[in-house]
């Protein structure tokens, strides 16, 4: 698995912004990625030391679609909470992620 295919995009929400202040970064990763894959990709791409990685598998969300019945609104995603070692920090995570996609 390629380093660039493991980390897809950052999660931008109030909770993730508050976690960034404590050195925990939230990203959406490939569904086949493991903790070891996420750790190595983060360390190689951003040049920081990772202390721990937590993985969250989200469930699909559904809505009622009238005649069509139940329609899937959002599929399954896998999120990773990456805690950096003390002293390690990313300057502007969203900006770094956007520049990497060009």
Structure description:
The chain has 102 residues and is of the alpha+beta class. The chain has one domain: Alpha-Beta Plaits (2-Layer Sandwich), CATH 3.30.70. Helices cover 32% and strands 33% of the residues. It is built from 4 helices and 6 strands, in the order H-E-H-E-H-E-E-E-E-H. The strands form 2 sheets. A 4-stranded antiparallel beta sheet has the order 1-2-6-3. Strands 4-5 form a two-stranded antiparallel ribbon. The two termini are 20 Å apart.
List keywords for this structure.
single chain, 102 residues, alpha+beta, Alpha-Beta Plaits, 4-stranded antiparallel sheet, two-stranded antiparallel ribbon, 4 helices, 6 strands
Short description:
The protein is an alpha+beta fold.
Here the CATH topology equals Alpha-Beta Plaits
Overall geometric form? elongated
Beta-strand residue fraction: 25-35%
Please give the order of strands in the largest beta sheet: 1-2-6-3
User: How far apart lie the N and C ends?
Assistant: 20 Å
